[in-house]
UniProtKB/TrEMBL annotation:
Domain of life: Bacteria
Stated name of the protein: Lysine N-acyltransferase MbtK
Pathway given in the UniProt record: Siderophore biosynthesis; mycobactin biosynthesis
Task performed by this protein: Acyltransferase required for the direct transfer of medium- to long-chain fatty acyl moieties from a carrier protein (MbtL) on to the epsilon-amino group of lysine residue in the mycobactin core.
Domain Acyltransferase MbtK/IucB-like conserved: 6-53
Transmembrane segments: none
Classification via SUPFAM superfamilies: Acyl-CoA N-acyltransferases (Nat)
Organism ancestry: Bacteria, Bacillati, Actinomycetota, Actinomycetes, Kitasatosporales
InterPro entries, alphabetized: Acyl_CoA_acyltransferase (IPR016181), Acyltransferase_MbtK/IucB-like (IPR019432)
Listed PANTHER family: LYSINE N-ACYLTRANSFERASE C17G9.06C-RELATED (PTHR31438)
Amino acid sequence: MTFTFRPLDPLQDAELLHAWVTHPKAAFWMMQDAKLEDVERAYMEIAADEHHHALLGLRDGVPAFLMEKYDPAHRELVGLYEPQPGDVGMHFLTPATDTPVHGFTRSVITAVMAHLFEDPAVQRVVVEPDVSNKAVHALNEAVGFVPEREIQKPEKKALLSFCTREQFFNRHSLAARGVAV
């Protein structure tokens, strides 16, 4: 699967995002009760933030997933770990569907990671999913993330995990050659 990325437009994309983030499948996104205006406001704040960016992932030109990247020295993880130069934080969301495609979410996280590492300044990706989100832990491991420790964020207990450029490309190149990872 091939994906492209474009900046999210908080106003034009709000209705689509609202459907995605309020669906029961997106419980870990913590916006279940959000109104359309809440989603607009949240993503307008991100659009105005130099340390946080939201992108839509497109499949054949159609929005297929949401990706956020942030500077963990300034957002999300301030005071919870010691950021290193080249760290970037990441969130991603694949929307619920009535017609799931086998391997889609793994393809999405692989594309997200490849997109992040296109920036030569990015040396390591940092994630902090909810400790109970076992599905995303498995996906993270599949692309090379290594859990470091549990941390307490204001909104959740999270599993702080890291994936270096080398870990991702080693894992990705093995998978591309058909080696089980």
